[in-house]
């Protein structure tokens, strides 16, 4: 029997992991990337992403986080590369708010890798974060920083080691299913595959217009702040704060600056990353500067570095992991809604199982059954 020919379109966060997983299966897999693995023009960049064991949205994600944690370790062991720094992270929140209620239940599931602090313990151990009197923290000892660019490059390199082909500077401009085969147009030429995985992030609705009703494409800012003269970042850990005022931050690997990002209301809708505004205005910066003034006043009031990234959101913010609405041989992985990096290994595994018709784990059914409203 001839081996199936599979294409993975987009070798970013999720496509790179999918290519790695498929490269270990009995199929011929080719990846296509618009730019080059590890570029900064999509959703992955800025040298850091948060990995957290503590879940704040839905406990159904918990087993998937544990599985991703295992797969991160597998990729690191296979390649000899360090892809995460798991020195712990903090989860701030107000105990009776829904996110922290889930966070505290998640901490109970994690066991001794999570430590719940009272308000007083939090302010004593982490005085640099100016939390409100009703806030507490969970120390997530299994959490930390993922290195996004290195991860993507490493996953693609590992896939190549297993025999996958990865083509760069290759823009797919058309995907059409004819009968049981899928024709893709790459840099003006057509090629035929048995199945295609599309993982093009913020470009999904541009490449597949039928996906537009399910997605909103948004621009997110990352901003880096130096400590004020005489202050330091010592003792600061990556953090996520559910409320009040959702924000997250990660110290840079060299300890020079703190990278900060804000929540959903600041993620402005755009049409496509190809046409989005690149400049960052003073108005764009105002919310993060207010956060610094109130929550992290030992940081300088103006960022030393800033950059925009692009991400696709679904309307209910659950990942879209499902066949294309009209092409059953095209699997779409999209709408990671600002949270898809930590679980990208398990997403890649679920995608590879779907393509190879390997039964999914019971835990994965949650993601596959997420309903996808069109508005
Ligand atoms: C600023 C920011 C901070 C975040 N922080 C976190 C965090 O701390 N933790 C976390 O878990 N998640 C976080 N996320 C979310 C996470 O980074 C995203 O969910 C994830 O990167 C999305 O992956 P993706 O594969 O869908 O998109 P991408 O990583 O953007 O990959 C899409 C790829 O497709 C390629 N492509 C596009 N069009 C074509 C085409 N036509 N042909 C060929 N290739 C194409 C692109 O070049 C790109 O490489 C954050 C997101 C942002 C933007």
Structure description:
The protein is 26% helix and 27% strand. By secondary structure, it is α+β, with helices and mostly antiparallel strands. It has a domain at 5-45 and 149-213 and 316-368: FAD/NAD(P)-binding domain, CATH 3.50.50. The chain contains 9 helices and 21 strands. Strand 11 and strand 12 (189-193) form a beta hairpin. Bound molecules: flavin-adenine dinucleotide. Flavin-adenine dinucleotide (FAD) is lined by residues 9-15, 32-35, 42-44, 49-50, 171-172, 199-203, 207, 220, 222, 261, 309, 311, 336, 338-342.
Keywords:
375 residues, 21 strands, 27% strand, binds flavin-adenine dinucleotide, 26% helix, FAD/NAD(P)-binding domain, alpha+beta
Write a compact overview of the structure shown.
The chain is α+β, with helices and mostly antiparallel strands. It has 9 helices and 21 strands.
SSE layout and pairings?
Layout: E1 5-9, H1 13-23, E2 28-32, E3 49-51, H2 62-79, E4 84-85, E5 89-93, H3 98-110, E6 114-117, H4 119-125, E7 136-140, E8 144-146, H5 148-161, E9 165-167, E10 172-178, E11 181-186, E12 189-193, E13 195-198, H6 204-207, E14 215-225, E15 239-241, E16 247-251, E17 258-262, E18 268-269, H7 282-295, E19 305-314, E20 320-323, E21 330-334, H8 344-356, H9 365-368
Parallel strand pairs: 1-2, 1-13, 2-9, 5-15, 13-21
Antiparallel strand pairs: 3-8, 4-8, 5-7, 6-7, 10-11, 11-12, 14-17, 14-18, 14-19, 15-16, 16-17, 20-21
Helix pairs in contact: 1-5, 1-8, 2-8
Bound molecules: flavin-adenine dinucleotide (FAD).
């Amino acid at each position: 029997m001839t081996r199936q020919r599979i294409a993975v379109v987009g070798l970013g966060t999720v496509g790179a992991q999918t290519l790695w997983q498929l490269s270990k299966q009995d199929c011929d897999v080719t990846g296509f990337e618009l730019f080059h693995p590890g570029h900064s023009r999509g959703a992955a960049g800025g040298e850091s992403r948060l990995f957290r064991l503590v879940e704040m949205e839905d406990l159904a994600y918990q087993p998937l986080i544990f599985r991703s944690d295992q797969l991160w370790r597998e990729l690191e062991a296979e390649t000899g590369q360090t892809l995460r720094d798991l020195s712990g992270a903090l989860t701030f929140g107000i105990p009776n708010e829904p996110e922290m209620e889930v966070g505290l239940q998640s901490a109970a599931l994690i066991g001794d890798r999570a430590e719940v602090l009272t308000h007083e313990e939090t302010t004593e151990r982490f005085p640099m974060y100016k939390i409100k009197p009703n806030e507490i923290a969970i120390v997530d000892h299994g959490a930390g920083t993922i290195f996004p660019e290195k991860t993507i490059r490493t996953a693609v390199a590992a896939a190549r080691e297993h025999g996958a082909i990865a083509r760069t500077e290759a823009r797919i401009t058309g995907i059409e299913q004819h009968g049981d085969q899928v024709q893709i147009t790459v840099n003006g030429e057509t090629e035929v595959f048995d199945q295609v995985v599309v993982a093009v992030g913020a470009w999904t609705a541009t490449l597949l217009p039928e996906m537009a009703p399910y997605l909103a494409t948004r621009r997110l800012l990352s901003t880096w702040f130096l400590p004020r003269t005489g202050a330091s970042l010592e003792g600061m850990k990556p953090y996520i704060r559910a409320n009040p005022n959702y924000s997250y931050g990660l110290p840079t690997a060299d300890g020079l600056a703190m990278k900060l990002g804000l929540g959903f209301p600041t993620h402005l809708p755009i049409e496509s990353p190809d046409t989005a505004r690149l400049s960052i205005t003073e108005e764009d910066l105002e919310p993060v500067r207010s956060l610094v003034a109130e929550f992290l006043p030992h940081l300088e009031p103006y960022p030393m570095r800033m950059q925009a990234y692009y991400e696709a959101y679904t309307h209910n913010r659950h990942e879209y992991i499902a066949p294309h609405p009209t092409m059953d041989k095209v699997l779409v992985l999209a709408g990671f809604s600002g949270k898809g990096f930590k679980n990208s290994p398990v997403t890649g595994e679920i995608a590879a199982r779907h393509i190879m018709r390997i039964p999914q784990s019971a835990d994965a059914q949650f993601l596959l059954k997420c309903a996808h409203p069109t508005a």
